[in-house]
Amino acid sequence: MSSLSAAAPFFIRCLKPNLTKQPDLFVSDFVHNQLLYSGMLETVRIRRAGYPSRVGFEDFLHRYKTLTTKRIQDSLNAAEQCRALMTAEECGVVGEEWQVGM
């Protein structure tokens, strides 16, 4: 759990170490196939290449708009609303930790 907490994972994927569910038995081919078929190996390859995960502006606003008490103008487009949300002081995000892409 300390390793997971230090890594700040987005989600946790459970893998079975063997078919018989016996303790202390790790079948590497079985685990490798689970990682391969779940798409985790491809995800790791893409993330290592430097491509970040991307969330659409509307989805981002829907999920995180409640983090701030700052009034965000509805007349702004979604990208500008995201910028306003990220610059809200109570969000506590440092300027170099984020950027808005198009």
UniProtKB/TrEMBL annotation:
An MF annotation (GO) of this entry: cytoskeletal motor activity
The transmembrane residues are none
**Protein name, per record:** Myosin motor domain-containing protein
Instruction: Name any one Pfam family assigned in the record.
Output: Myosin_head
> Do the record's keywords include Cell membrane?
no
| Similarity-based family | Belongs to the TRAFAC class myosin-kinesin ATPase superfamily. Myosin family.
The UniProt keywords, alphabetically, are: Actin-binding, Motor protein, Myosin
Q: Which PANTHER family match?
A: AGAP003327-PA, PLECKSTRIN HOMOLOGY DOMAIN-CONTAINING FAMILY H MEMBER 3
Native organism is: Sphaeroforma arctica JP610
Which GO cellular component terms, listed alphabetically, does the Swiss-Prot or TrEMBL entry include? myosin complex
